[in-house]
């Protein structure tokens, strides 16, 4: 059985080699995503007033995206809380431009597996591909998963041919 697995890996590697893709172009930078919320201008004005513009804390890797200084409060029937740091945990995903999607042979909305190397190597499944001309190539994973896999924002990952 072990020989069959090794044979399958060798065949997959040979096929990939014959496709003319450079292994270095298959690397995807890691972006560790803190819990956050995305607001439309409409929702922003409900929360902060007409014409309000958020103040930038810092730029993010995605073009035109930034972390804001503002926080939001969540109200329920029995009380409310102010979220000073964390709001939403995004599902792990890869941002990529259409040109990147062609290189990786993937489509918008497709789910892939991502191979992580290093001391805590592993495979993460159910990674959603998000294709948009305004995106910069980056794998987004939440802080908890990044810590569990030993990932930092200086690391890279690869789309895996293994299916989970």
Automatic annotation (TrEMBL):
Its cofactor is Zn(2+). Belongs to the PduL family. Keywords: Acyltransferase, Metal-binding, Transferase, Zinc. It catalyses: propanoyl-CoA + phosphate = propanoyl phosphate + CoA. It comes from Clostridium aciditolerans. This is Phosphate propanoyltransferase. Its EC number is 2.3.1.222. It is an enzyme of class 2 (transferase). The lineage of its organism: Bacteria, Bacillati, Bacillota, Clostridia, Eubacteriales.
């Amino acid at each position: 059985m072990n020989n069959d697995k090794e044979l399958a890996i060798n065949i997959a590697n040979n096929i990939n080699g014959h496709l003319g893709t450079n292994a270095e172009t298959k690397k995807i930078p890691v972006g560790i995503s803190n819990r956050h919320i995305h607001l439309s201008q409409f929702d922003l004005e409900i929360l902060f007033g007409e014409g309000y513009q958020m103040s930038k804390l810092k730029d993010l890797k995605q073009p035109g995206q930034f972390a804001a200084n503002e926080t939001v409060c969540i109200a329920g029937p029995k009380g409310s809380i102010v979220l000073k740091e964390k709001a939403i945990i995004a599902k792990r995903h890869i941002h990529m431009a259409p040109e990147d999607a062609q290189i990786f042979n993937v489509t918008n909305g497709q789910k892939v597996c991502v191979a992580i190397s290093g001391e805590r190597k592993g495979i993460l499944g159910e990674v959603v591909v998000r294709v948009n001309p305004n995106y910069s190539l980056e794998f987004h994973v939440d802080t908890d998963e990044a810590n569990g896999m030993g990932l930092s924002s200086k690391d890279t990952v690869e789309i895996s041919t293994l299916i989970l």
